[in-house]
Write a structure and sequence with these properties.
- The complex is a heterodimer of chains A (about 350) and B (about 625).
- Chain A is α/β, with parallel strands linked by helices.
- Helices cover about 30% and strands about 20% of the residues of chain A.
- Chain A has helices at about 30-45, 80-90, 100-110, 110-120, 165-170, 185-195, 220, 225-230, 280-285, 315-330, 335-340, and strands at about 5, 10, 50-55, 70-75, 95-100, 125-130, 130-135, 140, 175-180, 200-205, 230, 240, 245-250, 255-260, 300-305, 345.
- In chain A, a hairpin with a 2-residue loop joins strand 13 and strand 14 (about 255-260).
- In chain A, helix 1 crosses helix 6, helix 2 runs parallel beside helix 4 (about 110-120) and helix 3 crosses helix 4 (about 110-120).
- Chain A starts with a strand and ends with a strand.
- In chain B, about 35% of the residues lie in helices and about 20% in strands.
- In chain B, the strands form five sheets. A seven-stranded mixed β-sheet of chain B has the order 11-10-12-13-15-14-21, with helices on both faces.
- Classes of the chains: A alpha/beta (about 350), B alpha/beta (about 625).
- Chains A and B meet through strand 3, strand 4, helix 2, helix 4 and helix 10 of A and helix 1, strand 9, helix 9, helix 11 and helix 12 of B.
- Strand 16 of chain A pairs antiparallel with strand 9 (about 235-240) of chain B.
Chain lengths: ~350, ~625
């Protein structure tokens, strides 16, 4: 099943990360592509499957661990971040991947998501966003567009959708990226980047639910409209998009604006240069969230919006444990049981 | 003037004052000094849910009750010999429980017009001036004024000065009961090492209180209590939550696993989190989660990762944790859930005690979800019961519910503590890859129906677990009807089999020829024991058995109950153990229930048992 790397270590192939279980997602589901890219990226990274744990909650995406030949837990709805946090504290050497969806991660588990981001555990979070509840057969989700007609909203949904990346940016996630199921190459790049980041890395993946919400992201994934609507970010490069890169983003004071690079009025030198380490720019980029069908809408950014390492929670905890041992000495059990004050009865 | 000393067998003192008066501290320092004299003792702190209820009001009264004596002490005492009342509200709420002819020590400065009004005394009425205290031994001391005078030279502000007045009370009581001031001085020294002015002020007032007793002619009598006939050995004072903390750490050492504690602050369980977080040099990992659910889930993650995983909470939190406990149960991962019960339902009575989460603990999850339940019976018993909970969890691969309550959690008693070496090791069996290269089966079971624990990171054991029903042995997702029934029954049978690994039920105390058994669990231990002692002295044929293991019950419990004509079950709830006993053994039981947020008193229980005996 595996090949020898030449230096004695065994290098696994993508299919070595697949289990013998039948994959039970609907035919045509975007999850298949994501599963395939994750398996091949793990192989490319040369990961040891015994050191990988995939933790998920509930929902279509959360079936993911059953299909990964690694350690894994399919847990309960919304709670994967808390379980993954505890696991990381039990064994910080594990390579933990957390799989969630828009309902699991942003609705029932929204609280845990913001807290794992602010604490900054070194965990890779993949949020499959299909803007619908699939497993419960088609109710609107917290990322569904307003006025969405579903089984539970026959007259259209009233609630304003969550902007996932703005949410995690607000929770000070140290790595924020967006990708899509239908661009495997880009998705793989994002998975590599997220794995390379030490700290909580959050990757939102636009994923098509072809049964209950088919085409939700076609504006971004369809060949014809993709160039107009997608802004692919590259660190240190100007924000350029459109057919043959004919458009760009320029800052007008504190407001981003779209400019035409063909008229001669602007060149790429006038454009906003992407800086992954700039939290203020990242905040603005997460706000590029307009409906692509609207006239003059800002394009939707894909790629690494923000990446800046800061102290992880687990390092903080283990540092404290070490420090306590140094200053107080390794705990003595008899001293613990006796406590600070004893007396004799004779 | 001649001062005399009277010897007493047992004394109950109630310290009562405003929430901000420092009565808890006064009580616990007096308790520490009492323990050092060799008395046996029991305490009962009683405080309002509000951190600082409006000063002077009835709702703001905070109390600390101490019972100590030269005989074995099992309860904090029914009625007080001495009531210390720092203001009118404290007197009003506590006077009812003072013994006939008892002693009242009042701070007269807490009885001005405003205090009397806040305590809801009728206009113009003052209990210090009318006949409210007739027949009692009353000492009126102007504590606030004496404190301020004593601190005339102190640079502290008036508010800070007034805060020292509890030291006056403490000093005075130290004189009255012949205590060495050193205990309090050591405490002040440590607590205020960085605030020399505050230290000086407290010390000055502590001594002022002591000397006031010594020199004032009103006080002619000191009281002494001889040492209790406690077993020889080394003792410490222990509170329930603290015993739980050191029990969990001991279990982690004995199992050779790091301790992980995930929790969300909740009364009366927060002290466990505080306690454990101060023992990082024992390798203890504490995680203050964002909510109750995250707390139990973080523990579940840590259990999956191979730590001794524990979460702690009280009733409302246990309700929130239910789904995750169900997950731990179906995953068959070891975890301990500590529930320090309080008055319910809903927010209920956060600072008051109750035993009303027993059925929630036994049944409170969706689906067929049996998990072992153990209950501690006294502050020191929290230590042993915590270790037992951990042992069962680790050796039987199951979540275990540990029950305590506000009364045991905050109550204190002297404890002849064990040596670490006397606590047995907890053997934990981890999975190993199969030698023949065959696939690892995560839900294969041994003869006790226990599966193996394979930790992420272990070589060759990669496997998936989840909350969906799993096929026997492989653990793969299975919707097969017969498999689900089989797995449901096998999980139940696994818990049932734990009965083979716990001690048989013993009779705790009582007459050998008793025909009435008082069966208890949890914090009613002390009052039942004291009741049986009193009844036996009067020749009544009554015995006492106390359950530590509630799920599963000890194997011999049914036979043991059958040996008695009558079973009485006193509980601080509406009859929850009664339901379990009736259901398990079809045995009729007589229930005695008190649901007032306070423990059952010995007087109440003796009366009830006498009625049953006469009926």
């Amino acid at each position: 099943m595996s090949t020898n790397n030449g230096n004695g270590t065994v290098k696994l192939r993508a299919k070595d990360f697949a289990t013998d279980q039948d994959v039970r997602w609907c035919p045509g589901c975007g999850d298949y592509s994501i599963l395939k890219q994750v398996q091949s990226v793990m192989a490319e990274l040369g990961l040891n499957k015994d050191e990988v744990a995939v933790i998920s909650g509930i929902g279509c995406s959360s079936r993911f661990p059953y299909y990964m030949e690694t350690y894994g837990m399919h847990s309960i709805h919304g709670r994967a971040p808390a379980i993954a946090s505890g696991l990381k504290l039990a064994n910080p050497d594990l390579d933990i991947w957390m799989i969630t969806g828009d309902g699991d991660g942003l609705s029932i588990g929204g609280n845990h998501l913001i807290h794992i981001c602010r604490r900054n555990f070194d965990i890779n979070i993949l949020l499959f966003n299909n803007q619908i509840y699939g497993l419960t057969k088609g109710q609107y989700s917290p990322t569904s567009e307003i006025n969405k007609k579903t089984k539970s909203t026959p007259m259209g949904s009233i609630d304003h959708p969550i902007n996932p990346l703005a949410l995690v940016a607000g929770a000070d996630a140290s790595f924020i990226a967006r990708s899509m199921d239908r661009d495997p190459k880009h998705l793989k790049t994002m998975l590599h980047r997220s794995h390379g980041h030490k700290g909580t890395s959050f990757v939102e993946i636009y994923q098509n639910c072809n049964i209950f919400n088919d085409g939700a992201f076609f504006a971004f994934t369809d060949k014809a409209t993709k160039p107009m609507n997608c802004l692919f970010l590259e660190h240190d490069q100007p924000l350029v998009f459109g057919e043959n890169g004919n458009k760009g983003i320029k800052m007008d004071g504190l407001r981003p604006m779209v400019v035409d690079l063909n008229t001669g009025d602007f060149t790429t030198d006038d454009l906003w240069i992407h800086d992954e380490r700039d939290v203020f720019k990242a905040m603005l980029l997460t706000r590029f969230f307009e409906d692509p069908r609207e006239e003059g809408a800002l394009p939707r950014p894909f790629g690494v919006i923000y990446a800046k390492e800061r102290a992880t929670y687990e390092d903080g905890m283990f540092n404290q444990l070490d420090e306590a041992r140094v200053t107080k000495g390794d705990g003595n059990l008899d001293a613990l049981i006796a406590g600070p004050q004893t007396w004799e009865i004779s | 003037m001649q001062k005399t000393t009277e010897i007493r067998e047992e004394i109950t003192i109630k310290f009562a004052g405003d929430s901000g008066d420092g009565m808890q501290l006064t009580g616990s320092l007096f308790t520490s000094s009492t323990a050092l004299t060799g008395s046996d003792l029991a305490t009962f702190p009683d405080f309002p849910a509000e951190i600082r209820a409006p000063a002077g009001t009835l709702a703001g009264v905070s109390g600390f009750q101490l019972n100590f004596g030269s005989k074995h002490i099992y309860t904090p005492g029914d009625k007080y010999d001495v009531l210390v009342a720092m203001n009118a509200a404290a007197l009003k709420t506590n006077l009812f429980h003072l013994k006939k002819g008892g002693t009242v020590i009042v701070n007269v400065d807490g009885f001005d017009g405003k205090n009397l009004r806040l305590a809801k005394y009728e206009d113009g009425a003052n209990p210090l001036e009318d006949d409210t205290l007739a027949g009692l031994d009353v000492y009126k001391i102007s504590i606030t004024k004496l404190t301020r005078e004593g601190l005339k030279e102190s640079p502290l502000g008036m508010k800070e000065k007034d805060r020292c007045k509890n030291m006056f009370v403490l000093g005075f009581l130290f004189w009255r009961y012949g205590r060495d001031l050193q205990v309090a001085i050591d405490f002040l020294n440590e607590k205020f090492s960085k605030k020399p002015d505050v230290y000086d002020a407290n010390l000055t007032i502590l001594k002022a209180g002591y000397h006031y007793g010594e020199t004032t002619e009103t006080f002619t009598t000191k009281y002494d209590v001889a040492p209790a006939p406690l077993e020889k050995g080394t003792y410490r004072s222990i509170m329930g939550n603290n015993a739980l903390v050191i029990g969990l750490i001991t279990a982690s050492r004995k199992a050779g696993l790091p301790l992980f504690y995930g929790s969300y602050p909740i009364t009366p369980a927060s002290d466990i989190l505080h306690g454990l977080s101060s023992y990082k040099n024992y390798g203890v990992k504490t995680f203050q989660a964002e909510d109750e659910i995250a707390a139990v889930c973080s523990a579940l993650g840590a259990a999956y990762g191979g730590n001794l995983a524990v979460t702690g909470t009280s009733g409302p939190g246990l309700a929130l944790k239910g789904e995750a406990i169900g997950l731990a149960m179906i995953l068959e991962l070891p975890m301990v859930i500590c529930n320090i019960q309080r008055g319910g339902p809903s927010t209920g009575l956060p600072t008051k005690t109750e035993q009303s989460d027993l059925l929630q603990s036994v049944y409170g999850r969706n689906g067929e979800c049996p998990i072992p339940v153990v209950a501690a019976s006294s502050p020191s018993d929290c230590f042993f019961t915590a270790i037992e909970a951990c042992r069962i969890a680790l050796q039987h691969m199951t979540p275990v519910l540990f029950l305590s309550d506000g009364y045991i959690a905050n109550g204190a008693e002297p404890w002849k503590f064990p040596k670490a070496d006397d606590i047995p090791e907890i053997i934990v069996n981890f999975a190993k890859p199969k030698e023949d290269g065959e696939q690892f089966l995560p839900y294969e079971r041994d003869e006790n129906l226990v599966r193996q624990w394979a930790l992420p990171g272990m070589e060759g054991l990669a496997h998936r677990i989840g909350g969906l029903e799993k096929e026997a042995n492989t653990g793969n997702v299975s919707y097969d009807p017969a498999n689900h029934e089989y797995m449901t029954k096998v999980r139940q049978a696994k818990v049932n089999k734990i009965a083979n690994f716990i001690p048989e039920q013993q009779i705790d105390s009582g007459a050998e020829d008793a025909n009435v058994l008082i069966l208890g669990w949890g914090s009613t231990y002390g009052v039942i024991k004291a009741t049986v002692r009193e009844l036996n002295k009067a020749g009544k044929k009554v015995a006492h058995a106390h359950l530590r293991h509630i799920v599963p019950f000890p194997n011999n419990l049914g036979d043991l109950l059958n040996a008695y004509d009558k079973i009485i079950i006193p509980e601080i709830n509406n009859g929850q153990l009664c339901k379990l006993i009736r259901d398990s053994y079809l045995t009729e039981v007589v229930q005695y229930n008190k649901i007032q947020g306070i423990p059952i008193t010995q007087m109440e229980l003796v009366d009830f048992v006498n009625q049953v005996l006469e009926s």
